[in-house]
Fold:
Amino acid sequence: TEQGIQPYFAMELVEGRNLRAWCQRHEATTIQRLQLVAQICDAVDHAHQKGVIHRDLKPGNILVTNDGMPKVLDFGVARATDSDQHATIQTNIGQLVGTIPYMSPEQVSGDPRDLDVRSDVYALGVILFELLTGRLPYNLTDLSVYEAVRVIRDETPTRMTTLDAALRGDIETIVSKALEKERDRRYQSAAALADDIRRHLDDVPILARPATTLYKFTKFARRNRIPVALAATLVVALIAGSITSIKFGIDAVEEREVARAEREVSQDALAFQSRMLKGVEPHAMGKGIIRDLREQVARQHRRGSERSQAMVELDRLLIDVNAADLARGVVDRSILTPAVKALESEYADQPLVEAPLRESIAEVYYNLGINGRAVTEIRSAADIYAAQLGPEDPKTIEALTFTAFALQLDNRDAEAREIINAIVPSIDAAIASGKPHLIAAALVDAAGQLTGNDDHAANIRHVETIRSMIADGLEVTPEVHLFCLTRLALAYFLAGELDRAADVGNEAAALAIATYGRSHWKTQLVRTIQGETLKLSDRNEEALEVTTEVLALRRKLLGNRHPDTLIAITNHASVLSRLGRYEEAIDLYEEDISTTTELLGANHGTLAPTYANLGRVHIDRGEYQLALETLNKALGLATRSLDLRGIGVILQARGETYLNLDRPVDAIPDLERSRSIMLQVYAPEHPHHKATAERLVRACEAIGDSENAAKWRALSK
Structure:
């Protein structure tokens, strides 16, 4: 060239279609799709042998020529393998490189030092899953990046057999191994994955096997090797007892299915297994581990002075250890995950045994604060009931109702609404049916939160009707009765009848305590609502008594890092700030921010109310510039998570802050927008609107706008 010698690449021209389009156009069979993926594995393994990791494998980066030969393209984000890793420093820690639905758990974590060829193996597993089922292993639609990352790292992928029963057996085992979250549990190379696919195609036994319970526990023990045999023994006993009892129940059910009387006995065994699972208590397990740890250390150091020194050192290390936090990971990895695997392998032909056990596992997951896994298990149970008993069977509807409720608690309102709308067209229809399971489903949205129904009087009337039906003898479970009362409290709150909301909250709490006792998780959930209704009705001393007890029990039973504990921390801090105990409140808010940031990242939407409440503390203390900075952070998080009520509350607080900073021109648009938003959430009579109008009067007077000041003054009365 005129500039001299220029380097260039000579590349092959590939004419064809992307992998997904080629399979659709040629109506490729399952065998053809497996053969294609095996060939793709060969190509990827060749790149690995040359020291290159692709990092962005997906159907769009794989073309299939007209004669059916796959070609792997677009190595634009590729990285050298470990042998050449020092030459790849341009990739920053924390930067996500690749396409999220096809990224491995270690890849979404954003640290390139954790990547090796097994990340590409994971992506090949996703591609294989998608080609065979038409869907991705995880539904990441409409999720934020942070939530998608959490799902990939923490949740169990969809079972292929729930999408296509013909994939049961070798194919599902192969794909499951490729999608293992732990790299050491995956195929160790693309060649190994290709080899197992070809073994299946050749009717030769595959090398992959579903993980056994014993193997999973052995892995746990190796990861947590400490010189404390008794602590390990305790965990082994708990795990072995739970898993053995599950297996015992399987055998019992298998042997007693023939006659009606025998089936009744098997149902007793099934109920026993469910109770065993629900009886898993992290706090007690954690306390047991700590107790046995201390005993073992004491026995290892027999001389008095050595023992004393060792115990002091141990107690120093354990001072900040929460027993429930210590045991939660053990329960998940070594009891629940193996239990789910046992269900998948042992109950494949006994769906009506599998479903109720999945319900029990879902409840334990919820109690542990692992809400995504809870939703996965209860949804699986609902799908089984629907397939076996029909979509209108009470068991199906009860499982779907639990699913919708869990989704609502996980801030996944759109999915919850879709489920409820499919069950019952309206709450009027549910009431007219007189069927408890339909009424329970309708109660999920009794206050109109999901549907956006702003007819608050009608919402209250509906729930009061259900309350009267229960009082007149409608047979419902305690859960449905409590659900009715808590939804009624919410309906009164949204309508602005705050004292009545608090009274109903107190009634619900009394029923929960009488039914379950003070420490049960259902009681604590109801008491959380009780504390909030008391606080919002300015009965702060009563609220403080409730939030103090709830927080203490949450810390004790769930640990300091459980989502419900973090909610309890924020709720208690809010009451403290209303009582002028600002320093205590700030300490709690900072604890919540620190823990949530560590668990979910600094920009997770659940931090919006914490920052909003902290901003309110700064306003009350006269720290207006600090309040403005904090509320700006809160507004950004609430906007990202589409929290309509949160946005309205934050805008009102920021408008007040602008007023206190003598910036009325900035205050007016915030306050007007807050009022507009909150009219979609609260009834016109709600006190929030009066408070906003009063602030607008101040702002308009400050700029000499007497006409609008008069308008807002009339609306503030």
